[in-house]
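note to self: dont lose this again. the chain is below, predicted strucutre after it. 442 aa total, dont forget to put it in the shared folder this time
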Amino acid sequence: MSALMILFVTLILLVILVVSGVHLSVSLMLTSVVTMFFAMDNFEIAVKLLGTTAFSSIREYTFGVIPLFVLMGLFANLSGASTELYNSASLLLKRVRGGVGIATVIANAIFAAITGVSIASAAVFTKIAVPQMLRLGYNKKLAVGTITGSSILGMLIPPSILMIVYGSVSEVSIGALFVGGVIPGILMSLAFIIVIRIIAVVKKEDIPPAEPLTEEERKNFWNIVLKPWAITVLIIISLGGIWLGFFTPTEAGGIGALGALIIAFIKRKAYPKAVWQTLLSAGSTTGSVLILLVTAQMYSKALALSGSINLVQEFVVGLAVPEIVIVLIFMGILVALGCILDPTSIILLTMPVMIPIIRSFGLDLVWFGIVGIIATETGLLTPPFGISVYTVKSALGGIKEMDDVTVEDIFAGSFPFLLAMFTVLLILVLVPDLVMYLVNMM
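---
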């Protein structure tokens, strides 16, 4: 069977399996076996090759970064860091119109440097920020839209699970990806803050005037503002150590996890039952990511051996268009897939095909990974999938005043933040140095 026919048949099979609701890891594994069989014309050899891939794909030391950073985020959340960060930022910005919304973005950005998962941010800050916004009189759509939009920072600001997944597929330094995500993460946070400030000026009825500090807040101002200092120092040590070359991402994850656990103990939140549940949650999250990475490696190897990747690469390289056009087309594909698939699935499905093409152009894979992650993350805010939207809707349960808020309202509220994402994405595609500046200083 020709490489073109193998590519066509296996892609159709993969789409059918995914659309039918088969778990992505199972879909990738089955598709890989079929692809190998067509390429080798020997079922036994195909299965053995895939078995070898499964055995060797995640044995590397670098994959220890996944459970360690997951543990860091979970232990930090156990210590109450999310609430402390929000309270600190909201008090600092209380005298600014839209300050609570801006505080939500800032707290999300800092919390993102702990968790690496957008869904966690969406769930946590819905419970923390929505009641405060309702008390002040914020428009309900804007309130949920601010939380939904800023939650995407969880996968952009390092450490990010999505960066680890991309790094494993592309064989790019995870440390370089972490450092490369810093400036884009700051730019995205600033873009979201600008959105809130524009709304505060243009639609004043959606954002109430700023409140003065109460006597109690004046009295305890610095105690509240500086309360999250420990977790902030831990973030600086973990990410700064990677940038300065003091330790690897895996070592940074170990330091971060231990530090977060110590903070939880100091704050008397690390009860035995809570720690055990945290470990179970970390194991579950890590296991689901690693099984996806194993099957993604299988899929990538199957495509390479069948000649499908070379076929696609020759076709794309042969197009008489500038390289930037190809990159923009790839971004469009990632954005479109975000409407029906989760970010991790998109990265695992598309990058085995896209990365060889980007490499053949001589473009930097760290830069492409960061812009690709942003394009993929737009799917968290776009219908019909919009997993962050549904997470916020689920987390609103128990907040009686928000019973009338629909999923459509949350999509509408997050739309200005989606426009900000597209703007930052276009800037980063056209100005790669914004991604690579810190990376080149490593």
